[in-house]
Amino acid sequence: MNNIKKEDIEKIYKKLNKEAEFSGYYLNSDIEFTKDLIRGLLINEERYGYWACPCRLASGNKSKDLDMICPCDYRDDDLSDYDCCYCALYVSKDVIDGKKKISPIPDRRLQDDYKRVKGEKPIENYNFKLSKPVWRCKVCGYLCGRDNPPEICPICKAKKERFEKFM
Predict the structure, then answer these.
(1) Does this model's pTM top 0.85?
(2) CATH numbers and ranges of domains, the chain
(3) Which residue, of 25, 61, 63, 80, has the fewest CB within 10 Å?
(4) d(CA 129, CA 91)
(5) CA-CA distance, 59 to 48, in Å (whole number)?
């Protein structure tokens, strides 16, 4: 176990950087830090068979960990609210441009777990209302639930103004 080679990390770094750039995201510009996170992703892939976030405790059960497989379900909201994702692999343009600094942020996953432990009823027992509006890209149909639409559609690269409130 843990046969991670520098070449493997470099290959994944280049791939992630290219994908992030193509999708309108930014990887942390601290290359050594970013490569350490990638090493953690690769270690978790060896352990569990999937890229569990290296900054969270994985259960080893993929279906229970789907929300924290990189890129995690919390990335976009964290970027919007805090200018970086929980592990700081992804950062905002303001961080890249030096306008904002990365600082520790709360783990949205822990907040969700806390609610479950406190005995809140599962969603299927609610006649529920969404907690965030759903935005739809008018170009490609991409949907996301968040307070505001993304600056750039991660699928087709359409700008923020090409989104409409869907629900």
Answers:
(1) no
(2) 6-120 (3.90.460.10), 123-167 (2.20.28.10)
(3) 63
(4) 30
(5) 9
**How far is Cα 13 from Cα 10, in angstroms, rounded to an integer?**
5
Smallest CA-to-CA distance from 60 within 72, 42, 76, 44 is with 44
Average pLDDT, the chain: 86
pLDDT digits (tens, 9 = 90+) for 100-159: 999 989 988 876 654 554 555 444 444 456 778 889 888 788 888 888 999 988 877 888
Give dist(CA 51, CA 66) in Å, integer: 10
Are 123 and 115 in contact by the 8 Å Cβ rule? The answer is no
Query: One-letter amino acid identity for 152?
Result: I
Largest Cα span, the chain: 51
What is the per-residue burial (b if ≥16 Cβ within 10 Å, else e) of 15-45? ebeeebeebbbbbbeeeeebbebbbbbbbbe
